[in-house]
Amino acid sequence: MSDETKPNQASSPQQPAKPAEPKAAEATPASPPAPAAAAKPPAAAKPPAAPPKPTGPVPEPWESEMVAAFNRRFGSGIAEASTYVGQKYMVVDASIVHEVLQILRDDEQFDYCVDVTAVHYPKRERQFDLLWILYSFPRNERIRVKTQLKDGEAAPSVAAIWPTADWLEREVFDMFGIGFDGHPGLKRILLPDGWKGHPLRKDYPILQQDTEWVKINLGIESGQ
């Protein structure tokens, strides 16, 4: 059988070409990791705000028939009439304070002078507050009368109105140096007569002592 008469042999299908193997990437040296940023310390927490300061009591007007009568009689000589935490007080000009105190004893039945005392404010022009604390047994009522004095200015004595004021005024004289016109025998009551200074004044140093008096009268050196 000739080649021409040989049956045609089926040609084998052509195999697809294999894709080229990718070339292995050239190894590159790894770059060093970036240094980590330093961690910031946490911000300090702000302390809580302080609570608002509580408001304290404030003076309130003292309204009474007695106060109204004093206002009608003396006008601006009664600078203030108030109550503070239930305590009644009047602020009176020094020129009329003796008359006001006399009326309180004679007409308003304040028959007991509980105390006479003072407070020193050295930076003020009128450095001293002078106070009388009065009580009425018939009324069962306590009040305070206050006036202001300059350093060296005397107050009127009320020892003739209330005998208890005698020694009370002497104590104010001894501790503060405030004089009382008309006092029957104004002299020191706690410290010796020759003592220098007045210990309850705020310009009297806390450790001060009359070293001269101590040495002369006690024969010793001051312990302060």
Descriptive notes:
This protein has 224 residues and is an alpha/beta fold. It is 18% helix and 21% strand. The chain contains 4 helices and 8 strands. The protein has helices at 65-74, 97-106, 165-176, 211-218; strands spanning 60-61, 78-84, 87-92, 112-120, 128-136, 141-149, 155-156, 180-181. A 6-stranded mixed β-sheet has the order 1-2-3-6-5-4. The chain has a two-stranded parallel ribbon with strand order 7-8. β4 (112-120) and β5 form a beta hairpin. The chain is flat, with a radius of gyration of 49 Å. The N and C termini lie far apart (154 Å).
At the fold tier of CATH, the topology name of the domain at 60-189 is Beta Polymerase, domain 2
For the record, the CATH class of the domain at 60-189 is: Alpha Beta
What is the general shape?
flat
**Total of helices:** 4
Distance between the termini: 154 Å
**Percentage of β-strand residues:** 15-25%
Number of strands: 8
Q: What's the CATH H-level homologous superfamily of the domain at 60-189?
A: NADH:ubiquinone oxidoreductase Nqo5 subunit
What level of helicity do the residues show? 10-25%
Q: Spatial order of the strands in the main sheet?
A: 1-2-3-6-5-4
User: How would you state the average pLDDT, rounded?
Assistant: 86
Q: What integer value in Å does the Rg equal?
A: 49 Å
What letter string, H or E per element, gives the SSE order? EHEEHEEEEHEH
Question: In this structure, how is the largest beta sheet organized?
Answer: 6 strands, mixed
Structural class: alpha/beta
- The CATH level-2 architecture of the domain at 60-189 is identified as 2-Layer Sandwich
- Uncertain residue segments: 1-12
